[in-house]
Structures are given as structure tokens and as C-alpha cells.
Amino acid sequence: MDWIKTINHAIAYMEDHLNEQITLKDIAGNVNLSVFHFHRAFSLLTGMSPGEYLRKRRLSQAGAELANGNVKVIDVALKYGYETPESFTKAFTRFHGVSPMQVKKGSPIRFMSRYTVRITIEGGQIMEYKIEKWEAMDLLVHAKDFHAETSEKQIPLFWDEYYANEEYRKIPGYLGVCAQQKTDSDVFRYGIGCNALDVEGIPEGFEIIHIPEYTWAIFKCVGPSPEAIQNMWERIYKEWLPTAEYKMIPDYDIENYLPGDPSAQNYVSEICIPVRKSK
Predict the structure, then answer these.
(1) Angle of CA points 197, 198, 203, to nearest 5°
(2) Contacts of 224 (CB under 8 A, 6+ apart)
(3) How many degrees, rounded to 5, is the angle at CA 34 between CA 30 and CA 38?
(4) What is the distance between the terminal CA atoms of the chain, rounded to a whole angstrom?
(5) In terms of residue numbers, what domain contains 204?
(6) H/E element holding 109?
(7) pLDDT in tens, 200-248
(8) How do residues 131-183 score in pLDDT, each as one tens digit?
(9) Looking at beta carbons, which pairs linking 103-109 to residues 24 or more positions away fall under 8 Å?
(10) 145 and 208: one domain?
């Protein structure tokens, strides 16, 4: 998949529907992606979520209309999807730094232009990865559901909760497993645990996730956790996927936390994603 082209098509769709109440499902469906994969790819390639992009572009356009025309605040609020003047004023003031009425009286506004995603060549950093075929395996994990919009902050807290629980801590927690739900939502299941062969039985609070046989791309991450993992995810989408001879299979992905001090600058972890050769 050409991720750059796909995200630009999604942006074009969003721009064409700024005045309509489109959903994440609508946008993802327009570019033939699951909601989960679209949200993650868009966020990593643009630096903001699709919802944040839509909100800022709408408020930017709303500010321009209030500054340039003899329009009512309530009309602009309704046009850009706000049910009440109060909710519109609150969001507008947060974005522009001034209220809609202040803009109508001549206060300056902020403008956010339409995004265009491009591949840029910079830095020359080396990305270490290897391709391996793994047999099917069962992973033993303590898991819960997360929303893509808030997962970057919530998953590190989930790890803290895991290690604060004495019973959970008895299970080797070296894998973070993302099981992408086959639904039209941004919800996915994330588990912490190990290979099921490492432990006898299924302890209370844990479950088995079955991972099919796949070919995997395994990326080396160096640096403190979780920053090194999060930075590598961004590089995978920005640098590797647009040019690699492999396509990502939208199913499971695994974060492997190797022995060592996770806060150290030379700490090594891995991101493992299932892939297949591009045609």
C-alpha cells in the first residue's frame, strides 16, 4: 500500500466534507482501511489524530468566515457541526485565543492550512530490521481494550498497573501485544505477558491470544521505553512502509521488551509486525 497517497486521499475526503458530520468509519472506508489502521497511520504521518485535524481545520475556516463576512455566530457554529453557540465558543476560543464575538470586532485569528503528506529525505539515520518466519504461537497476556485516540498515554499507565500488581508480576511481562479488533471502530485489545509455553496453565486475570504463522519484520529500538518504541512506530510508517518491498498485514503486532534497564539510553526493545511481499 502507498501510505502517503492513501493518507493524502483521506485528507482530500476530509476537506471535501468539512461542513458535514463524517465519522472516522466514513473516512477510513473511503480509503479502504480499517478504522484502527487508518487512525494509527494518519496520526503517525501527520502528528495529530484525524479528529484533531478535522476540528482544527473547521475552527480555522470558521474563524475566516467570522472575520470576513457579516454572518451570525450561531450560523457558523451549526455549519461546522456545533449544536450550541456555547460549545462552539468554547472550542473556538481554545483554538484562536479569542472569542467569536472578538473576531467579529476585528481581533486577529489563527489559520491552519490543509495538510499534504510527503516523503522527505533527512538525517540519514540507520533503521535496523530483519525478516523472519515464525510458526503459529500462543501468547499468555493480561489484556484490556484501548481507544486509538488515547492509547499512547494510556498504555504506559497500563504497564505501570501491571507491575504494581504482585500477582501479575509473577508472569514474565516482556511482550506487549496489539490485537486489532475486526470491528469498524478505533478500539483494539492490548495485552502484556509472555509466550504461553513459559507458564503452566492460565492464571486468573490472563487470557490466551493465538498468533497465526506469519513472516515478521522485526525492528530494533534503542533508547528509553516507551519513547524508543513510539519513535520507531513513527519511522516505520514514515520511512519504511512507503518504500519497503513488504506490506504490513493488518492483524497483530508485538512489542518485545528485552532484559535490561528500560530507562537506559542503550536499552534495546523490538517492534514485530507481520508482513508479506509486495506484488
Answers:
(1) 95
(2) 262, 263, 264, 265, 267
(3) 75
(4) 10
(5) 129-277
(6) none
(7) 999 999 999 999 999 999 999 999 988 999 899 989 988 888 888 999 9
(8) 999 999 999 999 999 988 788 789 989 999 999 999 998 999 999 999 886 66
(9) 103/63, 103/66, 103/67, 104/66, 104/67, 104/73, 109/60, 109/63, 109/64, 109/66, 109/67
(10) yes
**Alpha carbon distance 232, 195 (integer Å):** 23
* Residue 116 domain-assigned (yes or no): no
Which residue is associated with the grid cell 497517497?
5
| DSSP result, 193-248 | EEEGGGSSS--TT-EEEEE--EEEEEEEEESSTTHHHHHHHHHIIIIITTT-SEEE
C-alpha cell at 169: 508480576
Closest by alpha carbon to 146, among 161, 168, 163, 167?
A: 161
The total of structural domains in the chain comes to 2
Domain boundary (71, 104, 137) is at 104
Written as one letter, the residue type at 70 is N
The amino acid at 134: W
Identify whether residues 71 and 148 lie together within a single domain.
no
